[in-house]
Amino acid sequence: MTRDIIDINDITVLVETASSDKMIVDSCFFDEPIIAVAFYGSGNVDLDVKYPNSCKNFKYTKGLTLSFFADDKVEFIHTVSKDKPLECIVIATAARNLDKLPNQEGDLFSELLNQLVNPKDHYVEGPSFHMTPEMQSILKSIFDIKYTGKAKMMFFRSQITTLLSHFFGQLALNQTNEIISKDRDRLNLARDILLQNLENPPSLSELSQEIGLNTTKLKKEFKEVFGVPVFKYLQNERLATAHKMISQNQATVQEAAWHVGYDSLSSFSNAFAKKFGYRPSQIK
Q1: What is the pLDDT of residues 66-89, one digit of tens each?
Q2: Whole-model pTM?
């Protein structure tokens, strides 16, 4: 059994490997509450997670990435056998260190792993999925590393950062796909209502009531699906419509501004210039 612990800023990386011709059982604890993501390599080791009054079993871990919260009452047990070796990397941060993480990493944990940031038990399982080929390739490169000394540490740090970036990127994509399957029709309806009412759009609360989503969920999911907040989307469509009307000689600048809901010509002109880089009067 090989277990290496490496500290990178306020993140701790646990690298575990083991193989055996006979069955061996190894357990470990964390000495304080942590939020972590585990990545399992080519081995297919069994994992049991024991905590007060409950137990969670994983019988197929090959290629699995698993996020979780755990405090010092949680025991992680790996059962290694001839056909089930262990290859595991755990990237963990103490819950108290979230605000200290660099590059807004703490925000990613809070946004995408909120149930782990605000746990309701000794052990809370977050999203899990099987790794993409890119993630599996990165994991393999870490276990197969041939460098030594400072070069090894530099390579290791870069690969851990890349692996965690892929995890959050795939997690965000998975959550967006879930939104698309559940609420896409409602979000499309919200978009259509905005497009049909450029001159006099509903308020956010009115739009929320009309499509049957609360305002918080509407704002969050609209941005995730369409890439911009609700009223930024509205502004972009207003200006695009006005640009088309002016460039095709369908309306004067003033008429186009009124048509898309701008009462102030100067406000319209400034917003137009900010989006397109030139003022509406300059359209030829």
Answers
A1: 999 999 999 999 999 988 899 999
A2: 0.65
Segments forming the whole domain that contains residue 108: 2-129
**CATH number of the domain bearing residue 249:** 1.10.10
**Number of domains comprising the chain:** 2
* Distance from chain centroid for Cα 128: 12
**Do 242 and 123 reside in the same domain of the chain?**
no
- Token pair of 103 as six digits: 């590059």
Span 119-146, pLDDT tens digits = 999 999 999 989 998 999 999 999 988 8
For 254, the enclosing helix (H) or strand (E) is helix 253-259
Give the β-pairing of 24-28 and 123-130. Answer: unpaired
Spell out a b/e string for 170-191, using b for 16 or more CB atoms within 10 Å of the CB, else e: bbeeeeeeebeeebeebbebbb
Q: Domain ends where: 76, 107, 129?
A: 129
* 111 is a domain residue: yes
Q: Which residue has the tokens 């993630």?
A: 135
